[in-house]
Amino acid sequence: MKLISLFSGIGGFELAAEWMGWEVYASCELNDFGNKVLNHYWPNAYHHRDIHTFNIQTLNEELTKRFGTRWRANDIVLTGGFP
C-alpha cells in the first residue's frame, strides 16, 4: 500500500503507515515545523505546502519523477488530519 496524506501535521498517519509496511508517497502541510519533520523522516516523498494548489497534475508530475510512471497502478490510501 502507498499513502498520500493531507493536512499531515508532524506525520502521524505517515508513521502509522510506515509501521504497517506502507510507503509514503506524498503529504501536504502548511506548518513550517510540520514540514521539517516530514522532510526529515520521509525525504523521498513529495511534500507540498498549500492545499489550494495540491492537484492531480502537480501530484502526477512530482510522483512520476520519484517513482516512475507506474505509481498510479499501486493501491493508494488518502488520509486527512484535522485540528
Helix share of residues?
25-40%
Outline, from the CA principal axes? globular
- The protein's oligomeric status is single chain
Number of domains: 1
**CATH architecture classification name:** 3-Layer(aba) Sandwich
CATH-wise, what's the superfamily?
A: Vaccinia Virus protein VP39
CATH level 1 class label? Alpha Beta
Please, what is the average pLDDT? 94
Sheet/helix structural class: alpha/beta
User: Ends: how far apart?
Assistant: 26 Å
Q: Strand percentage, roughly?
A: 15-25%
Helices and strands, in order, run as EHEHEHE
Major β-sheet strand ordering: 3-2-1-4
List segments where confidence is low: pLDDT < 50 over at least 5 consecutive residues: none
Main sheet summary: 4 strands, parallel
| Tally of contiguous helical segments | 3
In CATH, the topology is named Rossmann fold
- Rounded Rg: 12 Å
Commentary on this structure:
The longest helix is centred in the C-terminal third of the chain and has 12 residues, at 56-67. The radius of gyration is 12 Å and the shape is globular. It is an alpha/beta fold and 83 residues long. The protein has helices at 12-19, 32-41, 56-67, and strands at residues 2-6, 23-28, 46-48, 76-80. Helix 2 (32-41) links the parallel strand 2 and strand 3 (46-48). It has a single domain, classed as 3-Layer(aba) Sandwich (Rossmann fold). It has a 4-stranded parallel β-sheet with strand order 3-2-1-4, with helices on both faces. The protein contains 3 helices and 4 strands, in the order E-H-E-H-E-H-E.
